[in-house]
Design a protein that fits this description.
The protein is of the alpha/beta class. The protein is built from six helices and five strands; from the N terminus they run ααβαβαβαββα.
Length: about 180
């Protein structure tokens, strides 16, 4: 009987391991949700530069009473442009402030974009280095965080906020944060 080489068994074993990881990953409550080490912990500090005349987003603003949203965005981000009308709607219809952090962008492009398409943010800042992005665990854009009245992150949502996402994920999370849980 022929002996099977261990090297011949490696590819099927690697495939089986990856398939198991994929399968068990899909069994999570929300397989689309990227896990965040920040949920349940204080919002990280921000080191931002002023971006135009919109008030600067600071640590004091993040730690002020009341629920708030923080949105990481860039003009280069197609998904950010797609969610922009929803952010404007949120600004006009929700009693929760929306704060923006622009990154990997130029000041001129960011200001021109907000001037042309509207500014949904009550406080805004420009991340000139990757420190803030790294501290928040941001992988890309857009990413939105909900911060409760105690300054703790209660939700991290990666991807554009569509009307469906707003109704099924963001609004329930805002209400939960307002209720203190």
């Amino acid at each position: 009987m022929a002996r099977v080489s261990p090297m011949m068994m490696a590819p099927p074993l690697v495939f089986a391991a990856l398939a198991a990881l994929f399968y068990f990953g899909m069994l999570r409550d929300n397989p689309d949700e990227l896990p965040s080490q920040r949920v349940g912990k204080p919002a990280p500090p921000v080191e931002l530069a002023q971006l135009g005349e919109t008030p600067l987003l600071t640590d004091e603003v993040l730690n002020a009473p009341g629920v708030k949203l923080v949105n990481f965005w860039g003009t280069w981000c197609v998904a950010c442009r797609a969610e922009h009308p929803t952010l404007l709607w949120m600004r006009d219809n929700l009693d929760v402030p929306l704060h923006g952090i622009n990154f990997d962008d130029t000041t001129d492009r960011a200001l021109a974009y907000l001037e042309r398409d509207g500014n949904p943010f009550s406080h805004l800042g420009e991340a000139k280095t990757s420190r803030t992005k790294m501290d928040w665990g941001v992988y890309g854009a857009p990413e939105t965080f909900i911060i409760d009245g105690d300054g703790n992150v209660t939700l991290r949502f990666a991807g554009p906020i569509t009307r469906r996402v707003l109704n099924e994920t963001i609004l329930p999370a805002i209400e939960k944060a307002k209720a203190g849980g």
